[in-house]
Amino acid sequence: MDASDAAELIRAGVSPGPATWADLGCGRGTFTAALASLLGPGSRVLAVDRDARALRDLERNVAGGAHGVDVVTARADLRRLDAVAELRGATLDGALFANALHFLADPAAPLSHIAGLLAPGGRVLVVEYDDRPASPWVPNPLPLSRLNSVVATAGLAAPREIGRRPSAYRGTMYCARLDRR
Question: What's the number of CA atoms in the CB half-sphere (13 Å) around residue 158?
């Protein structure tokens, strides 16, 4: 998947900026670039990942003004978002977890943390695999049918599917929008 495919998957959940978003579990930045292209000039994206090498790749390819968007990176584990200095006291218009929550045994914890940082009208977008068994690459599948129970205690409204596409790696990928309650 390239950034334009990623943008099509999340487009219905992203209003043009200026806005402040976080891309949590950003990897090398495919969805960071997609988000930047949709938000546009004057926006800010905080890209968070625990993989320093992936963040260096992202910085080379996306950070520093992609589409007039201020993209900054922070190295952190999604299980410890409280340790991300750039998130302390932050107010986010949105957050994106793209192919990241399936690495966590407890995806509710980071969703709850981020829900507490959302501005009124803020939202979380979750991109995950549907119809895919566990594997070394997707150790904790999070199908859309399970996402509803995961967010029940996170301070977020029930998920609404806003995008779907076939996955190159089996099954399908969905994008769900979770609004702040």
Answer: 2
The full set of domains in the chain, from first to last, is: 3-179 (3.40.50.150)
Question: Does residue 121 carry a pLDDT above 90?
Answer: yes
**How is residue 30 written in tokens?**
């495919």
CA proximity to 170, closest of 142, 135, 132: 132
CB 110, CB 81: distance < 8 Å: yes
Query: Distance between CA 47 and CA 45 in Å, rounded?
Result: 6
pTM over cut 0.90: yes
**Cβ–Cβ under 8 Å, residues 10 and 34:** yes
Average the pLDDT over 110-139 and give the result.
92
Tally of CB atoms within 10 A around 150: 20
Count Cβ atoms within 10 A of the Cβ of residue 38 and give its class: 0-12 exposed, 13-18 middle, 19 or more buried. buried
